[in-house]
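Course assignment 3, question 2. Fill in each field.
Student: A.L.
Task: Predict the tertiary structure for the chain below.
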Amino acid sequence: MPTREKSGGGALVRAGQQALAVRSAALVARGLCDLTRDSNWVVKKIFTGYSSAIAISGLGHVCFVSRQFQRGGQHRTGDLGQRVVLYDVEMSTPMIALSVPDEVPVGEQDLAGAFAWSPSTRFLAAAWGGWRPALHSFDLHGKIFLGTFGEFGIVPRYLAWSGSEKYFVEACSGGKQASLRLWRVRDDGMSSSGPLAGQPTSELSVPGWLERQTYEAEFGEQGAFGGYGRCVFSPNEKTLASVIEIHGDWADDSIALLAVPTLKKQNAYQAQGHITDLVWSHDGRKIIYCAAGQAYCLTVETMDCEPLPFGAELCVCHTHLPLCICYSSWLKNSAKGRLFLVDLNRMEVLDEYAAEGVVNLRWSSDGSKAYAATQNGMAYIYEPTLL
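Answer field:
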């Protein structure tokens, strides 16, 4: 029987080496839709109970209010009841409980708070209803309390540093008592009270250019100015984007673009619904914001806005790549929400994971991973091979 020569088409051919990033991108984009499988997300339990005030640093350190502080493996409720504590998510270990002068026992009541890590993670600015009504600053490299500044009547809603730690801002609600205060951060290293002290460089109360959305007496405060919400500095630190909150379930918040450091109005945009988060794109040309469960993209130069093809309540953009980590509390055909990574150029979801109750998102300082924390003590670390 004559033999047939085998076709060379079935032979193994050695392929050229692909770059690791290309191979990783192909794996990530391969349709990672099964939320129950092992993935790029690592989940850890960092505390028990509940804390609505949470802030994550670029090193994965979490600041929150704890009703049970752990030190050296020993759990204790402590003689102060509640404490503001730090936890290292990467190492899965408690760090320290922050101590301030004249701290008094706090019971089980849920007190308002706001925390902000400096980009270098050295300094922490904090406000909490269990402390005296002023901003507190800490040097976490030296593990010392630096002092207080910026006394307030209402605990701030939000605190934020600029990217190079040149500026710091505090946003407060409270209607006619609301305020937005900006400090120029000291860099001379000469003050024992640290880089934040003294009176604010600029301050904004009720914006004179803001029009009330309704004037009917039966609506009371509905449609009136409620205060300042989330705020974030542009990458070049020349503009501050701040949420202008409006009273009422059906009211529409606005985004104010303010000059830094004067806080003079540059522009404003009225959104649809209440804004839950906003962030600048890595190039400073756009603002990604979330309102009424939907994500939007606002082009700063033209103030044109368009809805994005996904819903979200929280978002944080990568520092130098067109990537954004988002959180949505609602997932189709599921009782849970999801964390997900979006390619902002292609508007494509690259990776996702089921999650509930997320209140804070953060990229790591080097941009190699991302962190998320929930109000019930769960932490998520996104560690892709792509970045």
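Instructor remarks: The chain is about 0% helix and 40% strand. The first helix runs from residue 20 to 28.
Grade: pending
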